[in-house]
Amino acid sequence: MDFWDREKYIEDNPYYTEKDCPFCETTKEDEQFIIHETKHWKILYNKFPYYSEKHIMSVPKRHVAYSIDLNNEELLDYKFIEIYIKDFFWNDKNYYSITRQSLWGRSIEHLHNHYLPGHISFENKNNNNIFNIKNK
Q: What is the 3-state secondary structure (H, E, C) of the chain?
């Protein structure tokens, strides 16, 4: 599986809405990134990882923009996503998740949760005002 360059992604990609959502329209190439599915969710490797090839995401199968838009079945099914994530990162001992509850800073309107191994340093921010991440 070939991961893509994150900086090139940021430079080249527009903002995706429901009409052109890459999470809703899965291609044959995209299928190799899917590592687990439930009835309402899928877990996939991020094609444009922040810093680790273990950067994965959970994505609801139905197009929703915010977690508040999830229905009860999707919310209950999400528990099984969290169980899978915990097992996925078992050897890393530490991981963290990111869910943006606003559209600001997102490249895709479709709700998606990021999961990354490592530790976050809240004391030193880099020049882009992003928290430093330390792998151990």
A: CCCCCHHHHHHHCCCECHHHCCCCCCCHHHHCCEEEECCCEEEEECCCCCCCCCCEEEEECCCCCCHHHCCHHHHHHHHHHHHHHHHHCHHHCCEEEEECCCCCCCCECCCCEEEEECEEEEEEECCCCCEEEECC
Amino acid at 25: E
Cβ–Cβ under 8 Å, residues 118 and 96: yes
- Residue 27 pLDDT grade (very low, low, confident, very high; cuts 50, 70, 90): confident
Q: How many residues does the chain have?
A: 136
* pLDDT for res 48: 80
